[in-house]
Amino acid sequence: MRKILQDMGLRITELSDIMDVSRPTMYKFIDMYENGKRDDIDPGILKFFDSVERNPKMKKKDALYYALLIQGSRRRSDAHDRRIKTMVTVTAVDRPARKLLLLRSKDATDYMNYCEEMGCEWENVLNGIECRFDDAALVTLPKNMVVPQTSKTASGIEVPADFSYDVPNGYEIIDLLPSTMLYFRGSPYVSEDDFCEALEIVFDAIDSYDPEIYGWKFDTDSAPSFNFGASSKKGARVAIPVKNLTEVQHK
Q1: How far is CA 30 from CA 16, 19, 21, 27, 59, in A?
Q2: Is 80 exceeded by the pLDDT of residue 248?
Q3: Among 100, 225, 98, 204, CA closest to 153
Q4: Phi-psi region of 232 (alpha: psi -120 to 50; beta: other; left: phi over 0)
Q5: Which tens digit of pLDDT belongs to each residue from 206-223?
Q6: How confident is the model at residue 247 (pLDDT cuts 50, 70, 90)?
Q7: Tens of pLDDT, residues 15-32
Q8: Every domain of the chain and the residues it spans
Q9: Measured between alpha carbons, how far is 3 from 131 in angstroms, rounded to an integer?
Q10: Which of 23, 34, 145, 214 could form a disulfide with 141 if both were Cys (CB 3.0 to 4.6 A apart)?
């Protein structure tokens, strides 16, 4: 475990901070894990170790996100403690009729177990398609787009309606109707080590955002949502479908 963490560039201090244990305790858990003493390891940390061991080529940012998902969002009582800006912008974007190129999963419910099930190569595959509307994202599908023996969690990109490229092996194409998406975007940041905090800030903003004040209603039952992750240059980004409240009231 030490070598895997070292190879991905993940420092014990970073992992300890996210998992809310002291550095000596984290070292103790690593020693116990390497010696097969699983029963006395904190369950969340054990889950993280097992995930990393099954996927030793995982990128550092993915490992940090895994840890954040396991531990749960950490709430800081003093906003001044944050190392990056907490400003989140919200932009409405009208999307035309288009297609969704996606890779479904069987059992995944979040980013962590999606990558455990499907691996981490989907990001490179999807970002290699130049005509995509945006970057590769973890996609949450509405019920009407889920097929039998699959979950609502997939990876995917939006592409033009006339997309005619060869579909990568294992992927599929489905049609999307015109829709409006609210893009939640956090501020860019300096250190890639702040990847997890950047996502936390955006998800906090979504939780507290009331679209009805601005004439919108979240519409996750009829269109997919997209989690684009975070990068230092673009910040964290999430897109959620909405409907115009006036249209909803007239139906």
Answers
A1: 11, 13, 12, 5, 19
A2: no
A3: 225
A4: alpha
A5: 999 999 998 999 999 999
A6: low
A7: 888 888 888 888 899 999
A8: 2-71, 79-90+180-249, 97-177
A9: 39
A10: 145
Judge whether 232 and 189 are in contact, CB under 8 Å: yes
pTM of the model: 0.73
Report residue 121 as tokens: 């190569």
Residue 69 and residue 110 in contact, taking contact as beta carbons nearer than 8 Å: yes
**Token representation of residue 211:** 């679209």
Which spans in the chain are helix H?
A: 2-7, 12-19, 23-34, 43-54, 60-71, 111-118, 122-127, 195-208, 245-249
The span from the CA of 126 to the CA of 105, in Å, is 15
- Alpha-carbon span 238 to 181, nearest angstrom: 10
What distance in Å separates the CA atoms of residue 113 and residue 90, rounded to the nearest whole number? 28
Among 163, 158, 151, CA closest to 101: 158
Whether 64 contacts 196, CB under 8 Å: yes
